[in-house]
Design goal:
By secondary structure, this protein is of the alpha+beta class. Helix content is about 35%, strand content about 25%.
């Protein structure tokens, strides 16, 4: 739908199940003519004894999840639903003016009954699939933007013996609606170098700066092939003073004089490109990565990071840091070809023969969808 046709679209329509209408304590409104891009099917369910609402877009099956709702929230869903769509679209990196066009031109939000069996069945399937991903729920948040994005990246059948990815379909439909590219982001070309004395292990990435530092952690893990099985932290040197970006609120509660922030609440743009940044993975082995910003891109047309280049094999995990890594290499180098020592066998199996750039590129591409 072109922008010039927008004025005839007057409603953001939420097609509610009987369970949800009962929870809201409202009667369904009459059905309105709609563009399916502005229609959503919604269901009420309970997850971990918490009230949950799942919305699935009628046109592309993009998913929005609200969690831990209270009675007051059900009374204000007409405000909460557009707020959730806005927040999740912002996390996707959509252009702000596009989000405004999608939401603010609607005359009002309309809650009505489910439209047909096909759309209701698709919504029900999304709710079933959600039960396999409850471990990703952020318990303190009503608007589950990370889980919503994850669910929207699941492959689903389109009824034509083929499959679609709802987030990619949403991108396509919004671009058709908007009439121009939907992403215009600031990004940075970043070189991340593993701090080793005797080895050059590095990756060059392009990363959108609207991402958070916990997103960046996942990107680094994928780029280097780490197993993401240990604690990590970022250290930002703000005017010479270290600020630690940590994984949880609990880590902050144990702090005394050190300034700490939770990484998922901090965007890359808060510190890049102005501050020196280190990333430390496995606080025992202490794998320190130096983050170097090489340039800033003002018109990045993607909402996901890419790996551009890299070199060097990442050390194996749980080896005792750099000292343990050197000892491992010495063990391999000093092994006689007829040696049957099991430690040597294990040691050699831990070392990849060469860095696979294409494999690492795919891993980074798949990290955040």
């Amino acid at each position: 739908m072109a922008i010039k046709e927008m004025e005839r679209v007057l409603f953001l329509i939420i097609h509610c199940t009987k369970k949800l209408l009962k929870e809201m304590k409202v009667k369904p409104e009459e059905l309105h003519e709609e563009d399916s891009l502005f229609g959503w099917h919604a269901n009420f369910l309970t997850i971990n004894d918490r009230n949950t609402v799942v919305l699935v877009n009628n046109k592309n099956r993009y998913t929005v999840i609200l969690y831990g709702l209270e009675d007051k929230d059900f009374k204000n869903l007409d405000k909460l639903v557009p707020l959730a769509i806005r927040e999740i679209f912002e996390k996707e990196g959509f252009r702000p003016d596009l989000i405004d066009l999608y939401l603010e031109k609607r005359a009002e939000i309309s809650f009505t009954k489910t439209k047909n069996r096909q759309l209701t069945a698709r919504m029900s399937k999304t709710c079933e699939d959600l039960m396999f991903f409850t471990k990703f729920i952020e318990k303190e948040k009503v608007i589950q933007h990370k889980l919503s994005k994850r669910m929207s990246r699941l492959s689903v059948g389109d009824g034509k013996n083929s499959y679609i990815l709802p987030h990619e379909e949403m991108y396509k439909h919004l671009e058709e609606f908007y009439g121009r590219p939907i992403f215009n982001l600031k990004a940075a070309e970043i070189k991340v170098k593993l701090d080793l004395k005797n080895h050059f292990v590095w990756r060059k990435l392009v990363v959108p700066l609207h991402l958070t530092f916990d997103d960046f952690h996942e990107v680094i893990q994928a780029a280097f092939g780490w197993e993401n099985s240990h604690l990590h932290q970022f250290i930002v040197f703000e005017n010479g003073r270290p600020v630690y970006l940590v994984q949880t609120e609990e880590a902050i509660s144990h702090s005394t004089s050190i300034e700490m922030k939770v990484e998922k609440n901090v965007q890359l743009s808060d510190y890049i490109p102005d501050y020196e940044i280190n990333y430390v993975y496995d606080l025992g082995d202490n794998w320190k990565h130096i983050v170097q910003v090489e340039r800033v891109l003002d018109n990045y047309d993607k909402n996901f990071p890419i790996l551009v280049d890299g070199a060097g094999v990442t050390p194996p995990e749980d080896i005792g840091g750099e000292v343990g890594f050197e000892n491992l290499l010495s063990t391999i180098a000093g092994r006689d070809k007829h040696d049957s020592d099991h430690l040597s066998d294990w040691a050699e199996s831990q070392i990849n023969k060469e860095f696979d750039l294409e494999k690492a590129k795919r891993a980074v591409r798949q990290t955040l969808g």
